[in-house]
Prior knowledge:
The protein is built from four helices and four strands; from the N terminus they run E-E-E-H-H-E-H-H. By secondary structure, it is of the alpha+beta class. The chain folds into two domains: 2-84, Double Stranded RNA Binding Domain; 98-128, no CATH class. Strands 3-2-1-4 form a four-stranded antiparallel beta sheet.
Amino acid sequence: xxxxxxxxxxxxxxxxxxxxxxxxxxxxxxxxxxxxxxxxxxxxxxxxxxxxxxxxxxxxxxxxxxxxxxxxxxxxxxxxxxxxxxxxxxxxxxxxxxxxxxxxxxxxxxxxxxxxxxxxxxxxxxxxx
Length: 129
């Protein structure tokens, strides 16, 4: 979803700062312009972690540009992946060989985890590779 963000342009001694008019108290920063999208996504994820229902709709950019508190910087429409904010559990049905399920349960129990926790962690690690 596209959200307007206000970039306080940095220089050689300070980073570019990002203000989120729609997300009070949410800020991001990056040294390079190319790093801003990642910093913005990370800031929004941290700000709304576990509370996707509290994310407001974006304010129209036309409304924000008329606000005198935003001066000396530039506007940017940031593409925020809202699916990365929703951390609510989802029940799903998968089929695995019985002996594999037994191995998963044994390993998870020995490491004080649930089967779901183990599978989630394994999936996250596999996607990082």
